[in-house]
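Justification of computing resources. Each target in the renewal requires a structure prediction run like the one illustrated here; the chain below, 126 residues long, is used simply to show the kind of job we budget for.
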Amino acid sequence: MSNDFLNVFLNEMKTNVNGFIAVAVTEIETGLSFGNITVDSAFDPELAAAYNLEVVKAKLNAVKALGLNQDIEDILITLSNQIHIIDISPNKKFMIYLAADATKANLGMTRAVLRKHKADLEKNLA
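Resulting structure tokens:
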């Protein structure tokens, strides 16, 4: 894995997501943080990703237990003034946790930015 590529990815999210607060990339199986960045020193993206990893694991287990032949593309959590998107890689090996200011972010554009970079990220984290 290239740290340069990961740093480019993190900075692309910071630059291209309106209302950007933080982003973290985490391995689903182990909880290992590949990297994170934030513009708010009071917001710990690694800690937020660790807690949200439990949400991902629970949802993956629920999909399996229900016998659904479906993949989770993303999980959206809407707070009063923030949106949190948990985007899961197609190979289910890592997740991207992104937080943005709900008054500035456009959900469709934010998802589009994540989709644009997710495939390249998956190739580089393999």
